[in-house]
Design goal:
Elements: E1 12-13, E2 21-22, E3 85-93, H1 99-110, E4 116-122, E5 125-133, H2 134-145, E6 156-159, E7 169-173, E8 197-199, H3 201-218, E9 226-230, H4 234-239, E10 240-242, E11 280-284, H5 289-300, E12 305-309, H6 312-320, E13 325-327, E14 329-330, E15 337-338, H7 345-354, H8 357-361, E16 364-365, E17 372-373, E18 379-380, E19 388-390, H9 394-399, H10 406-409, H11 428-431, H12 435-438
Parallel strand pairs: 4-7, 8-12, 9-11, 11-12
Antiparallel strand pairs: 1-2, 2-19, 3-5, 3-6, 4-5, 10-13, 14-15, 16-17, 18-19
The structure holds zinc ion (2 copies).
One zinc ion binds at residues 381, 383, 386, 388, 403-405, 408.
C-alpha cells in the first residue's frame, strides 16, 4: 500500500524513534543555488534559471510508505541536465464527476512531454507535484487552466536545477488526495466555507506582526488569543518554521490529531484546553493542502476562528520573503531543503539587515548529540540498510562516519560520508570499494 502523506509525497518514519525519518538513498543531491525571479502565481511568466552543468541527474527515490521502512523507487534514466527544469506544485478541491476519464485526458495531454512526479485525481479534485523542463511543466498548467473548474488554480513554481526532482510520473486515480487516518473522502473539502478562512501572505504577515507586537508588550511568549499551528511534521519544523510556532509532535501528517481529544488534555496538543469560540487559530503548512483538509476537521470539532496561510509557506516566501520565518523550507522531493532565497532573493537580503542572523541559525539540533546544527538539511545514514534521514552536526558526522548511531557504524553495507548537498547514489557504486574506512570529512 502506498501512503500519500503530507499532501505532497509520503514520508516514512520510525515509530519507536520519533525524531528520526527514513529517506531513500538512491538519489544524488547537489548544491542548490538561489534562483532568479520566478512568478509563481497568477501569471505564468518564467525566467530561465541558472543551470549547472556536469552534475549527475538526481535519481530521486523517495519513500512512499508512511510508518514503514523505506521503499526505494526506481531511478530515472533520463539525461535532461541541459534543460531548464522546474518543480511545480498545485492542488484544487473541485468536484470531478468522472475522475477516471479525467485521468485519461491528463495522460493523453502529457504523452510525449517530459513530466515526472505525482499527480492524483479523484472526485474531490486534483493534487499535483511534478518536475520537468519549464516548457512542458508550464504547458500542463496552462492546459489545465483552460478548464473553468481550474482556471484560478494557485500554482507554485521553484527551480529544480539538477533535472527531475521525482523519479518517474505517477498520474492516476487515488482515493485520498491527502493521506489522513480515517480517510478524507467524507470531508466537505469542496465547500470553502467548511474550511479555514484563507489569508493572503500579506494578511498573514500583518496578523503575525500584530500578535508579536502584543507579545512584546505583554512579555508573554505569544498572544493568548492566538495559536500558531504548524500543520506539518516535527522534522519539517526542525529546519524551518514561523517564529512562535511550536514543534508539532507528529512524525507523519496522517496521524495528526490536534484538537481531537476534548476529554484528555495532552501536553503535545497545542489545541488542547483552548477556548474553541474565542481563540484564533493560525494554521500553516508547506503548500496549503494539509491546512485545507485539516481545518474541515477542526471546524467539525467546533473551532470557530480558523485561518490558514493561502498557498502555504512556499507562497508566503515568494510574496513576503522570510519575515517572521526562521530557517529553510522542507520539501518532499529530491531537493529536501530550500532556503527562502529560492523564492525571493531580494527579500532575504532585506530581512537579514533587520534581523540578527543568530536567530535564524540556531534552531536545529543534532539528532545524535543535541548540539546546534547550522546546515539546515537532513542527511541519510551511511548504512544503506538503515538509511535514516536525520540532522547531524559536523562532529557527529565525523565521529559516526555519516551514520545515525553507533550500531550503524558496524553494519555490513556502509557508504562513504557525503559532503555538502550530495545525495547517495545506487548501492552498486559503493559496493566494491572500501571508501568508508578511507574517508575523512
Ligand atoms: Zn552531534
Ligand atoms: Zn542508521
Amino acid at each position: 500500500m502506498e501512503a500519500y502523506c503530507c499532501g505532497i509525497i509520503s514520508f516514512a518514519r520510525i515509530p519507536a524513534i520519533p525524531k528520526r525519518i527514513h529517506f531513500p538513498s538512491d538519489s544524488n543531491h547537489h548544491h542548490f543555488y538561489p534562483s532568479r525571479k520566478y512568478s509563481t502565481t497568477s501569471r505564468l511568466t518564467y525566467v530561465k534559471p541558472l543551470v549547472f552543468r556536469g552534475q549527475p541527474q538526481p535519481n530521486t527515490g523517495l519513500s512512499s510508505q508512511c510508518g514503514n521502512r523505506t521503499e526505494l523507487l526506481p531511478a530515472s534514466d533520463d539525461d535532461n541536465g541541459d534543460l531548464d527544469f522546474i518543480v511545480v506544485n498545485f492542488y484544487s478541491f473541485n468536484f470531478i464527476k468522472d475522475p477516471e476519464e479525467e485521468v485519461a485526458k491528463h495522460l493523453s495531454f502529457l504523452e510525449g512531454r517530459d513530466i515526472h512526479g505525482r499527480i492524483y485525481l479523484n472526485e474531490q479534485g486534483i493534487n499535483a507535484q511534478y518536475s520537468g523542463p519549464s516548457k512542458d511543466a508550464l504547458a500542463y498548467v496552462e492546459w489545465l487552466r483552460e478548464d473553468d473548474r481550474f482556471s484560478d488554480i494557485l500554482v507554485q513554481i521553484s527551480p529544480a536545477l539538477n533535472g527531475h526532482a521525482f523519479p518517474k510520473l505517477k498520474l492516476r486515480y487515488k482515493p485520498s488526495l491527502v493521506q489522513l487516518e480515517g480517510g478524507i473522502s467524507h470531508l466537505p473539502l469542496i465547500d470553502p466555507s467548511k474550511r479555514a478562512t484563507p489569508l493572503a501572505p500579506s494578511e498573514w504577515r500583518k496578523k503575525l506582526e500584530a500578535v508579536h507586537e502584543l507579545d512584546d508588550a505583554s512579555n508573554s511568549t505569544f498572544d493568548k488569543n492566538y495559536v500558531l499551528l504548524d500543520v506539518r511534521n516535527g522534522y519539517e519544523w526542525d529546519i524551518g518554521h514561523f517564529e512562535g510556532a511550536r514543534r508539532p509532535d507528529v512524525d507523519c501528517f496522517r496521524s495528526t490529531s490536534f484538537g481531537l481529544s476534548p476529554e484528555e488534555v495532552t501536553a503535545s496538543d497545542p489545541l488542547a484546553n483552548i477556548d474553541k469560540e474565542k481563540t484564533n487559530i493560525l494554521m500553516y503548512c508547506t503548500g496549503g493542502i494539509r491546512c485545507d483538509v485539516y481545518s474541515t476537521i477542526l471546524r467539525q470539532q467546533g473551532f470557530q476562528n480558523l485561518y490558514t496561510l493561502k498557498g502555504g509557506v512556499s507562497h508566503y516566501l515568494e510574496k513576503e520573503g522570510p519575515q517572521k520565518w526562521i530557517g529553510n523550507l522542507f520539501v518532499f522531493d529530491s531537493r529536501l531543503s530550500l532556503p527562502p532565497s529560492t523564492y525571493k532573493k531580494e527579500a532575504v537580503k532585506e530581512a537579514s539587515k533587520t534581523r540578527p542572523t543568530s536567530k535564524s541559525n540556531l534552531l536545529a539540533s543534532c539528532y545524535i548529540c543535541g548540539s546546534p546544527v547550522t546546515e539546515l538539511r537532513h542527511r541519510n545514514c551511511a548504512n544503506i540498510d538503515c538509511n535514516l534521514l536525520f540532522l547531524c552536526c559536523i562532529d557527529c558526522v565525523k565521529d559516526f562516519r555519516g551514520c545515525c548511531s553507533l550500531n550503524c557504524t558496524t553494519a555490513p553495507r556502509l557508504r562513504p560520508v557525503l559532503l555538502g548537498h550530495q545525495r547517495y547514489e545506487k548501492w552498486h557504486i559503493y559496493r566494491d570499494s572500501n571508501m568508508q574506512t578511507e574517508l575523512t570529512v
